Amino acid sequence: SQTIHQWPATLVQPVGSPLSLECTVEGTSNPNLYWYRQAAGRGLQLLFYSVGIGQISSEVPQNLSASRPQDRQFILSSKKLLLSDSGFYLCAWSAAYGYTFGSGTRLTVV
Amino acid sequence: DQQVKQNSPSLSVQEGRISILNCDYTNSMFDYFLWYKKYPAEGPTFLISISSIKDKNEDGRFTVFLNKSAKHLSLHIVPSQPGDSAVYFCAASATGAQKLVFGQGTRLTINP
User: Fold this and answer.
1) DSSP symbols for chain A
2) pLDDT tens digit sequence for A14-40
3) Cβ contact (<8 Å) for B46 and A49?
4) A46/B34 CB distance under 8 A
């Protein structure tokens, strides 16, 4: 069966520090992968998506970047976090009926 | 440009009654629609979907209605239960598109 793993579950980072969130998928090959963010009181905003290794599409200009070094691995990064980067980050992969989401990472930038 | 809109940020319903969540879209190319349910600090989970060739899809207590001419869909939950309290997201996609477009979400609260 297909599963998606996302870690860490929570993270508190100081302003200006780097960020690396990792997402891995099991049980499928060549999935479409996505990073979403849910800011406080707001909906799900698509940040990046990838249709294959090394292929990244950015949806909104921001302080973040994404990489896909392996078929089932998707990484969200930042060199220097801003306060506005706080939020709930979700990884997802595209299943037959829609998306399957990971459990999310609550990022608080202080 | 918000292509999928959920204009009600919150909804409060009494237990046992019907909950109706609404969603509007602007892109006429959308042909597949989904509803997701999200609890705090968890990822959204798939609830129910509908293709544009249908106008209704039912799964237990959940029914989704699609009105293509009005570019409107709704999710009906009946009877509503306390465990239904969550944020509900409407989403849409077009054939060949690589991504889902989500609405802003509606927080549903079921009162005992």
Assistant:
1) --EEEEE-SEEEE-TT--EEEEEEEES-SS--EEEEEE-TT--EEEEEEEEETTEEEESS--S-EEEEEETTEEEEEESS--GGG-EEEEEEEEETTEEEE---EEEEE-
2) 999 999 999 999 988 889 999 999 876
3) no
4) no
